[in-house]
Design a protein that fits this description.
GO terms for molecular function: isomerase activity. The protein has about 300 residues and is of the alpha+beta class. The chain folds into 2 domains: about 5-125 and about 295-304, Diaminopimelate Epimerase, Chain A, domain 1; about 135-285, Diaminopimelate Epimerase, Chain A, domain 1 (Roll), CATH 3.10.310. About 20% of the residues lie in helices and about 40% in strands. The chain has 6 helices and 18 strands. It has an 8-stranded mixed β-barrel with strand order 1-2-3-4-6-7-8-18. Helix 3 (about 140-145) packs antiparallel against helix 5 (about 190-195).
Length: about 300
Amino acid sequence: MNSVAYVTVDVFTTERFAGNQLAVIPDARGLSDARMQAIATEFGYSEVTFVLPPEDPANTARVRIFTPTTEIPFAGHPNVGTAFVLGRQREIFGRGPGDRLRFEEKAGLVEVALIRESGTVTGARIVAPQALRVGPAIDATTIAACASLSPDDLSDATHAPVRISVGLPFAVAEVRDIATLSRARPNVSAFDAANARCRFAKDSFSLFLYARTGEPWQIRARMFAPLDNVIEDPATGSASAALGAYLVSLFADADAEVEIGIEQGVEMGRRSLITIGVSKRDGSVREVGVSGSCVTAMRGSIEI
């Protein structure tokens, strides 16, 4: 193999050069783990996906997800974008999956449904592969230091800062308002210190901050992961899904169907719109979906 094809897409947006960038390698057969990591580092996007044949033929594909520094078990926008690419391949080349896909990933099986408008694939909806996991709590001083804020800038009206996950863990905290959120700046030294104190797993410390917009289920968010060479992420579906699941788990009603709109990337000039759908039954969150639109940005080949 002398070269490998790639497609880049902008995810959680209907506008090219907005949303979150993703590079997809639709056929990664023959690439070693080291080469995959090198390609992801070369792109410098928050994630790159590599599509391989499934281990179980009943599934669509095996998808591996790499940040610039490491492989991760699950992420939101890589799954939405990869499904979009595979769905569009079918339209272009007359082959590929149907509208229901299943991706084998390190976090588990990810169920995907393509979204169409007038017959054309425009995005996808995925279901988080794991149940909500909560804890432990994280002190406000640690969170504030990482975001170059004061502990008084945080809000614990709904919950204290905490680590949550539906496939990939994040530290999550609410701040007082959108103006405070916009002032946040990642402090790499503080992230290093937090990573040493809060080493709950092999995952490096990542922080998802959010503020209410005034509407009950409308949220503005930012995500910082400088230890993964992602100073700020324009859209973080996995963190959004975890937050949605957590907020609905705290909601008083035992049964609920809630749709949450999360806006991210505004401060970066890459506005993203993420829709989170949460189903709650008998007091427990049963399913968390992440959906959004995509647009193709570039196509090309990588010399290897």
